[in-house]
Automatic annotation (TrEMBL):
Segments forming domain CstA N-terminal: 2-534
Keyword Cell membrane belongs to the record: yes
Gene: cstA
Transmembrane segments: 6-27, 62-80, 86-107, 127-154, 160-178, 185-202, 222-242, 254-271, 291-311, 331-351, 414-434, 461-481, 487-512, 519-543, 555-578
Top-rank taxon, per record: Bacteria
Assigned protein family: Belongs to the peptide transporter carbon starvation (CstA) (TC 2.A.114) family.
A GO cellular-component term linked to this record: plasma membrane
Protein name listed in UniProt: Carbon starvation protein CstA
Subcellular localization(s) per the UniProt record: Cell membrane
Keyword list, A-Z: Cell membrane, Membrane, Transmembrane, Transmembrane helix, Transport
Length: 597
């Protein structure tokens, strides 16, 4: 099996799915009607509600949903072999993720762009709305811990990478200040991107210097620095750090993955992994559980992700110019993200299994696997750092991409630069998701606790902003400091997929109200049934075998309590939905259609 075959086959499947199933969802199930004004037109204010060109909206939505998940999840799930990951990505994205993103976006637009918790309150009642809001708060903070864990292990004892990533903070702030003062976006872009590239080129020179020693940081130190950074990113004005970092990282993301696709077609690397590994029944060094349910928990973004509901009921529904844009922006962007995830999977499984497991396991655990490394010592020497035991997925992706790039003629001597560029690309893009997510968490905290103390609801109240930002950073910072990638990513996966289940529950309710044929509800119920069972089995397994097991390395009462709480919230929402569906089913279909018109 070679990589080009997988890439071409996958893209063909996704294009056919978009053309056929995407059209069916848009025209038959959701009945998108461009004769009706979208919220962007009805509530246009020049700030939040702005009618936006379809492709600009697509770019915004894709950049917002495609963070670390499609990069890291497939890397970690490669433990099970290439076939389970590939099948779940393709089936999950078409049947689950694209439908989820489209129906959530549609449900929010029907309610003038309101958040999913507000939509749940109106569709399912106040109890379901409260539980959805609480679940969103839990999930966004856990997401931040999971994403930060990836950056943690990428930058651990890596002064070149830490310097390259750290310098992007003042560069982004400089770009923000320059653009605000002059309005010259082109000049700010050229200077900002040029300075970032210069930082990568200067990186090797700091190794062995006082600055290099200062930036050689342990994971425990980075686990404190990241939440502190996120606090300032969440509290500072958005134009000063958040927006320019987002903007600059988008250029890197497009460039890196375009280069990877070209590299795969030029090199056409052989897939070194078997279809299934010995760990499909559990006991793996990266993910302890069996291939099911953990393949669907480890790979969220790229297949189906509840995190997308934050975007699909946040900024995007306030931007769409026409209802039919839901097909390309909601359904289509998810399929493009699936391509990104498949490319990440190829980068991982193009490595020798021994090299892969040596990177993603601690040295002590790797010794028990009975494997030998093949090219790892050579790669470590070429790149300039010890690659063993750098868990988290980010380093594996960088090594896999470097391995592919250096097979291209004339690039064979540039391994260290390719590696550090990919590390910086991953870290900058993930940090963008972290600071954006922390800001979202701040809003959720202010909104949720503002019900008990009204001044907190005011986003312009400085003490409230500081309190909410600090609380958000403390919660996910504690999870980051006390966890490991196996337990944290599993906690993130369970919570994220539970959020996707909630999105499908709300989507199914809306479809039942507006569809011409009631069986169309199965477009939501089929992925919902699979995902809800999967997330509960995985949650129960993790609570029993890891979080509340004193003999487990991932023993954590807090993680156990969080998991149990989220599963209970999901059950309450599902019960409320079943009650609502029963009520709606008793109403004649003609009457339902009349009410929804």
């Amino acid at each position: 099996m070679n990589a080009v075959t997988i890439v071409i086959g996958s893209i063909c499947i996704l294009m056919i799915a978009y053309r056929l199933y995407g059209t069916f969802i848009a025209l038959k199930v959701l009945k998108l009607d461009d004769s009706k004004p979208t919220p962007a037109h009805k509530l246009e204010d020049g700030k939040d509600y702005v009618p936006t060109n379809k492709w600009v909206a697509f770019g915004h939505h894709f950049a917002a949903i495609a963070a670390a998940g499609p990069l890291v999840g497939p890397i970690l799930a490669a433990q099970f072999g290439y076939l389970p990951s590939l099948l779940w990505l393709l089936i999950g994205a078409v049947i689950g993720g694209a439908v989820h993103d489209a129906v959530v976006l549609f449900a929010s637009m029907r309610k003038d762009g309101k958040s999913l918790s507000e939509v749940a309150k109106e569709e399912l009642g106040p109890v379901a709305g409260f539980c959805t809001g609480l679940a969103m708060l839990f999930i966004i903070t856990i997401t931040m811990a999971g994403l930060s864990m990836v950056v943690l292990h990428a930058l651990e004892n890596n002064p070149w990478g830490t310097f390259a990533v750290g310098i992007t903070i003042p560069i982004a702030m400089g770009v923000g200040l320059y653009h605000k003062k002059t309005g010259n976006l082109k000049g700010a872009t050229i200077v900002g991107f040029g300075l970032i590239m210069a930082a990568i080129l200067l990186g090797p020179n700091i190794q062995g210097t006082a600055l290099g020693d200062l930036l050689t940081l342990e994971a425990s130190t980075l686990a404190i620095i990241l939440p502190i950074y996120a606090f300032f990113a969440a509290a500072l004005p958005v134009w000063l750090l958040l927006a320019p970092r987002d903007y600059l990282s988008t250029f890197m993301k497009i460039g890196v993955f375009a280069a990877l696709i070209i590299g795969v077609f030029v090199v056409n690397p052989e897939i070194q992994f078997p279809a299934f590994t010995e760990f499909i029944n559990g006991g793996g060094p990266i993910v302890a559980g069996p291939v099911w349910p953990f393949i669907s928990i480890t790979i969220a973004c790229g297949a189906i992700s509840g995190f997308h509901a934050f975007v699909g009921s946040g900024t995007t529904p306030k931007m769409l110019n026409r209802w039919s844009d839901i097909k390309s922006v909601g359904f289509g962007a998810m399929l493009v993200e699936c391509v990104v995830a498949i490319m990440a999977l190829i980068a991982a499984v193009s490595l020798q299994p021994g090299d892969y497991f040596a990177i993603n396991s601690t040295p002590e655990v790797f010794q028990t696997l009975g494997m030998e490394t093949v090219h790892l010592d050579e790669l470590s020497e070429e790149i300039g750092i010890n690659l063993e035991g750098r868990t988290g997925g980010a380093v594996t992706l960088a090594v896999g991409m470097t391995y592919i790039f250096t097979e291209i003629p004339f690039f064979d001597k540039l391994a260290s630069f390719f590696f550090q560029f990919v590390i910086m690309f991953e870290a900058v893009f993930i940090l963008t998701a972290i600071d954006s997510g922390t800001r979202v968490a701040r809003y959720l905290i202010q909104d949720f606790f503002g019900e008990f103390y009204k001044p907190l609801k005011r986003v312009d109240w400085l003490p409230g902003n500081i309190f909410a930002s600090a609380l958000a950073c403390f919660i996910w910072g504690y999870l980051l400091y006390s966890g490991d990638i196996g337990s944290i990513w599993a906690l993130f996966g369970v919570s994220n997929q539970l959020m996707a289940s909630i999105g499908l529950i709300i989507g199914a309710t809306v479809v039942l109200k507006i569809a011409d044929k009631r069986w169309y509800i199965w477009t939501c119920l089929v992925p919902l049934a699979y995902l809800y069972v999967t997330v509960n089995v995985a949650g129960y397994w993790m609570v029993k075998n890891v979080y509340l097991n004193p003999d487990s390395a991932g023993f954590s009462i807090l993680n156990g309590i969080l998991s149990i709480t989220m599963l209970i919230l999901g059950l309450i929402i599902l019960v409320a939905a079943l009650k609502k569906w029963r009520e709606l089913w008793k109403i004649p279909q003609a009457e339902l259609l009349k009410r929804s018109a």
